[in-house]
Amino acid sequence: MNKHAIVIGGGIIGLATCFEFQEAGFDVTLIDPDPISGATHHAGGMLAPTAEVQYQQQELVPLMKESARIYPSLIERVSQYTSLPTGYRTDGTLLIGADRADGSHLVDLIKYLHVEDLPVDVLTTRQARAAEPALSPRISKVVSIDGDHQVSPRLFARALFDAVIHRGAEHIQDQVTAINGYDPCLTVSMRNGERVASKSIVVLAAGLGAATIPGWFEGSNPLKLRPVYGDIVRVRVPEQLNPLVTKVVRGFVEDRPVYIIPRDDGTLAIGATSREDQPHPRTGAVYTLLRDATRLVPGIEETEFIEATCGARPGTPDDLPYVGWAGSNLIVSTGYFRHGILLAALGANAVVRMSQGREVPASLSACDPFRHKN
Ligand SMILES: Cc1cc2nc3c(=O)[nH]c(=O)nc-3n(C[C@H](O)[C@H](O)[C@H](O)COP(=O)(O)OP(=O)(O)OC[C@H]3O[C@@H](n4cnc5c(N)ncnc54)[C@H](O)[C@@H]3O)c2cc1C
């Protein structure tokens, strides 16, 4: 096999994968009609293995921890090949319960975080407001999570794209319509042509689009992906108030989750809802996000509204991604659901290691791409 990889999909997963292939000495072809137009364009960008932990998802925890561990190296290496910013920030995260019921929710979560060996520091409201004076005095409980960081997904994805193109990647601006000739004589068909890929590694990293490419496994597609929509709002902090907050602020307000992510350019991303219908920003959801965010940080009322968007997370039935071999030269890497920005470092690294016959973290054995085929 040549040291050549064809990566289908130029979201955060495909782009990070292209980059890691180049690091391993591969030539790379990226196929995407419109890179960075999917979930990556809308995402918040929290790299938050602790604050994002969910009950009953123990198999995700080691994946998230490992990806957070190797993220700084990915950022550092990408920055050697591009002058574009990544929006990577290590200021940490505050997790807040707004009222007393939200506070006791947080106490239960802290117990669970200890069980999962995810460290947090409990702060008094006074300590939290000393660190972030814009926090409302009407908050009930706060913990600080130093290890939960963030990138700006649009910036980081653009930086990755710039880096891989400067290192010589070929970009075919086309949509893949079929992957034919399963094992080992793959042909990748596009709207405007085709590529014989029998001597390349092909990586299917097309986010939700991966489930719509027909027939590549015994005449069917085994991936069960569904869109899980999320509204997210962007606002600009006026100069005299900037920075309004320096850490990511996540909270529960009357049991509804909300987060506020400060960016280097003086904007805030406020997100995100989760629903399976209506692929456009929903007015009621935008209203609720802004009301809940303002409950935690009242100064948000003074900001300039920029946009409300709605992205589709590539969800799987068990919330774990699909990562693994799907033929002698086809690897699947998709279904990263709520955590694709965080898991991009691990996913990209693992795919390249698989293609070289090297060991990958044992936790990835739960991510078999065929586990939902029936
Ligand atoms: C509102 C919101 C907030 C989020 N916040 C976070 C967060 O804070 N932290 C976190 O870790 N994750 C977050 N996520 C999840 C994260 O955005 C996704 O898991 C991640 O972006 C998935 O990346 P991807 O590259 O697999 O898919 P995408 O970004 O959707 O990219 C897929 C790419 O494939 C291309 N494509 C599709 N079909 C084809 C085809 N047939 N041929 C060629 N190309 C094709 C598309 O053009 C697109 O560029 C959030 C998501 C949303 C919606």
From TrEMBL:
Alphabetic keyword roster: Oxidoreductase, Thiamine biosynthesis
Keyword Oxidoreductase in record: yes
Pathway connected to this protein: Cofactor biosynthesis; thiamine diphosphate biosynthesis
UniProt GO molecular function: flavin adenine dinucleotide binding; glycine oxidase activity
EC number in record: 1.4.3.19
InterPro entries per UniProt: FAD-dep_OxRdtase (IPR006076), FAD/NAD-bd_sf (IPR036188), Gly_oxidase_ThiO (IPR012727)
Span of domain FAD dependent oxidoreductase: 5-352
BP term (GO), one: thiamine biosynthetic process
SUPFAM superfamilies: FAD-linked reductases, C-terminal domain (SSF54373), FAD/NAD(P)-binding domain (SSF51905)
Reactions mediated catalytically: glycine + O2 + H2O = glyoxylate + H2O2 + NH4(+)
GO cellular component: cytoplasm
One Pfam assignment: DAO
PANTHER family: GLYCINE OXIDASE, SARCOSINE DEHYDROGENASE-RELATED
Name of this protein: glycine oxidase
Organism for this UniProt entry: Corynebacterium deserti GIMN1.010
